[in-house]
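Dear H.,

Thanks for agreeing to be a second pair of eyes. The structure we're designing against is below in token form, covering all 262 positions.
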């Protein structure tokens, strides 16, 4: 069997293994999903009118739903990948990876299974949160089929980027609890982005923190694709962030994994 065929076969096996784990132990994924869903319901039904009025649009809850949902879809990806860090750390600390190293399998297939499985879970989570958003009034009637396709591509690319970073965090964590704590910035960064309010509504000293991070360009690009708002330079900045994080996470993860240390 060629090296490529072996890698594909082993990666498929590891993917099935990770999907089976997710199916048998769904509590972690469901708990992480509660964060974006709870924030969605809280900000729409408790703060929606006030937030919309503060942004100059009048007390219009439906307008704030449209503004909020793109950012929460990306926050959902960040929440889901926290589970990836925990899962990778469990594999590293419970001895299964040490056993895999003694078997004639492609070394990269272990990480590939985690990454592909996590991306699929992220996409499923985004669909679920999107369904909740649609149920409470989110609509994207102006987006064309091409814009929907571009939005889906951005979500998948963003999920891949954050997953590789989460894999690296899981590999360097001494246990599952530490992995979950190390991955918390993937949940907190959307809170200080343009997800909830425009950047120009923030204090001047805080605006660079919100602007120069990966979530804000992705949020603005997704918002523009779904709602027809201005994208500007975010259209190239968002995929650039994704590609940079993919490369960083991949190199970091392979270096740690191949080096045999956490």
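And this is the sequence the design step returned. I haven't edited it by hand at all.
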């Amino acid at each position: 069997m060629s090296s490529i065929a072996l890698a594909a076969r082993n990666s498929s096996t590891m993917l099935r293994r990770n999907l089976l784990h997710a199916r048998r132990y769904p509590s972690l994924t469901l708990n992480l999903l509660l964060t974006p869903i709870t924030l969605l319901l809280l900000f729409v039904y408790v703060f929606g009118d006030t937030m919309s009025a503060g942004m100059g649009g009048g007390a219009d809850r439906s307008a704030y739903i449209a503004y909020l949902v793109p950012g929460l879809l990306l926050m959902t990806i960040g929440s889901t990948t926290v589970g990836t860090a925990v899962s990778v750390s469990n594999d590293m600390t419970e001895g299964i990876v040490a056993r895999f190293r003694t078997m004639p399998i492609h070394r990269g297939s272990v990480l590939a299974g985690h990454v592909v499985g996590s991306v699929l879970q992220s996409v499923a989570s985004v669909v679920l949160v999107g369904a909740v958003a649609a149920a409470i009034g989110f609509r994207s009637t102006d987006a064309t089929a091409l814009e929907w396709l571009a939005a889906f591509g951005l979500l998948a690319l963003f999920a891949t980027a954050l997953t590789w970073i989460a894999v690296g965090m899981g590999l360097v964590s001494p246990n599952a609890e530490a992995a979950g704590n190390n991955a918390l910035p993937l949940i907190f960064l959307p809170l200080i982005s343009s997800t909830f309010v425009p950047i120009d509504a923030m204090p001047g000293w805080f605006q660079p923190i919100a602007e120069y991070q990966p979530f804000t360009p992705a949020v603005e690009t997704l918002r523009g694709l779904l709602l027809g708002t201005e994208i500007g330079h975010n259209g190239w900045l968002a995929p650039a962030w994704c590609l940079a994080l993919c490369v960083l996470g991949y190199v970091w993860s392979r270096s740690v994994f191949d080096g045999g240390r956490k």
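Two observations from my side: The mean pLDDT is 86. Residues 154 and 239 are 7 Å apart (CA to CA).

Warmly,
E.
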